[in-house]
Amino acid sequence: TPLSLAASFGLPSSVRCLLENGANASTAGIRGCRPPTFRAAWLGSAPAIRALLDSGGDARSRGRFDCRPIHHVAQLLEHPNGEDAVVALIKGKASVNSKSQAGGTPLTYAAEIGSPAAVQLLLRHGAKPTYTGLSGRTPLHHAAELMGHPDGEKAIVALVEEGADVNAGDMMGETPLIRAASMGSPAAVQALLKVGANPNKRDHYGLAPLHYTMELLGQHGGEAAVLALLESGGDINVMTRDGFTPFSRGASY
Predict the structure, then answer these.
(1) How far apart are the C-alpha atoms of 125 and 71, rounded to whole Å?
(2) Domain locations in the chain?
(3) 55-101 residue pLDDT tens
(4) I need a labelling partner for 149 at 20 to 30 A (CA). Which of 18, 63, 109, 191 fits?
(5) pTM (predicted TM-score)
């Protein structure tokens, strides 16, 4: 609709003009998948969000795959007035714990995108760090993505302080620590160890964090990550089901 297009391009004056002339702030597009409020959030247009909400736009409108505007906090925070738009969505009854079709919450998406600011903002407004998607992953499983940002460690600490289980396993038994190592993030490995990650918990394949971290030795910070695991009690002789120790697995790469 014209209103959806105005919201897409972040044109609050056009949004207001259309609304003043009878446009419906909650009308979905031709496929019924992206109402104006959702589209504005998806594209990170904080001014358009405010204009739509001020005119009766639905803060809980559904987009594709059951996502809501609040799922796009990270995009909104890229705008100078983004936090105000997020708060307006929450005041408009948007749930910070709403789930998409895949079970992802706004907090999960914020962590997956690697936005520490969005993670911390959502936690301040009551987001639950223990909720999982269909994969069984919690927001903390995206520590590697968060550590790509200078404030990543603050977000990891905040998640744990608010109740995130640092040793939670997903459907494949991967803990946040194992995933951080398998994603090739020495910084995330070290950050998770600082908040109490178990250095010896294995996944469903029998692989411990050290089996994955040995593959990081050729990367910047890789040696420090291995040493951090060992200093935290990581077992250098732990074997996989096939009889591989971390050292023998590392030697094969």
Answers:
(1) 14
(2) 1-69
(3) 677 777 776 667 788 898 988 888 888 898 899 889 888 999 999 88
(4) 63
(5) 0.81
Residue type, 11: L
Decide: 193 and 199 in contact? Cβ < 8 Å. Answer: yes
Name, in order, each residue with C-beta under 8 angstroms of 184's C-beta and a sequence gap of 6 or more: 144, 215, 216, 219
- Provide the token pair at 41: 């959030």
Assign a CATH topology to domain 1-69.
1.25.40
Per the listing, tokens 């946040």 go with 176
238 Cβ contact partners less than 8 Å away, ≥ 6 residues apart: 200, 202, 208, 210, 211, 245, 246
| DSSP code of residue 110 | H
Residue type for position 42: W
- CA distances to 17, 18, 119, 164, 229 from 112, in Å: 36, 35, 10, 15, 24
